Amino acid sequence: MPTFFASDFHLGVDARCSSRERELRIVRWLDHCVAEQAEAIYLVGDLFEFWFEWKRSVPRGYVRFLGKLAEITDRGIPIHVFTGNHDMWMEDYLPQETGVVLHRDPVVHTIYGKRVLIGHGDGLGPGDHGYKRLKKVMNAPWAKWLYGRLHPNLAMHLALFFSHQSRESQGPEAAFLGPEGEWLVAYCERKLAQDPALDYCIFGHRHIPIDFTLSNGSTRYLNLGEWLFECTYLRMDAESASLLRWTSHAPAPIAIGAGPDVAVNRKS
């Protein structure tokens, strides 16, 4: 029975299609995972463009997606959800209401006898010191308490506005930068030195599908890509791990480009 991995849905913002259309596509993909008799599903961060939980309210919308998560966990299929940089303020709502298992930091799980390092990827590896400082502040209890004092209408408007400004300033995601330029590759190499038994390192955040073999010649760094444009995900079973693209109602293989190990298929 296969295990599925996906990340960076960014529900709440329009891209190639509207957020509602993307939500329906994600629900169809989840139905496909169930039809494939999924062993487990890992949703590796940035499921929402922004998420905050007040004491008695949560962001409006996403009922089809959230309902599907609850339906799947009710069937006994575990779903692991990781916080990302856009939804780091998840608390207990999703675990209590949908039955998912919530992770705030990278974890190592044994899957089909393989040691698999899994995490969203933000703030890991060398560099990006400005964001690392900001993340420490945003994760502080006092910061969440202060933001929670805002009316939800204002809080959501501000968060989505600044998220849009940040996305516009960054421009499109760059192609694979090579092992020297990819911070997550450097992070995975460091973790591999600490745990030579790692077989896979699976992350999101980067927004391009990547399949790169680390320096030991066997451990694979796999980046899941995103669903704003390309709708890519990973299917793993006891024999292999393959990056695929979800095309409306069915999976499709991703053509490998930019070298023998790296899949880069972002379309502008």
UniProtKB/TrEMBL annotation:
> Could you tell me the Gene Ontology terms of the biological process aspect for this record?
lipid A biosynthetic process
EC primary class? hydrolase
**SUPFAM superfamilies referenced in this protein's UniProt entry, alphabetically:** Metallo-dependent phosphatases
Sorted alphabetically, the keyword list is: Cell inner membrane, Cell membrane, Hydrolase, Manganese, Membrane, Metal-binding
| Record-level Gene Ontology MF annotations | metal ion binding; UDP-2,3-diacylglucosamine hydrolase activity
Organism of origin: Neolewinella aquimaris
The protein here is known as UDP-2,3-diacylglucosamine hydrolase
Q: Which InterPro entries does the record associate with it? A: Calcineurin-like_PHP, LpxH-like, Metallo-depent_PP-like
Q: According to the UniProt entry, what is the EC number of this protein?
A: 3.6.1.54
Give the CC-aspect GO terms: membrane
Q: Gene3D superfamilies, per this entry?
A: 3.60.21.10
Per UniProt, residues of the Calcineurin-like phosphoesterase domain are 1-209
Q: Does the keyword Lipid metabolism apply?
A: no
Among PANTHER family, the record links this protein to: UDP-2,3-DIACYLGLUCOSAMINE HYDROLASE (PTHR34990:SF1), UDP-2,3-DIACYLGLUCOSAMINE HYDROLASE-RELATED (PTHR34990)
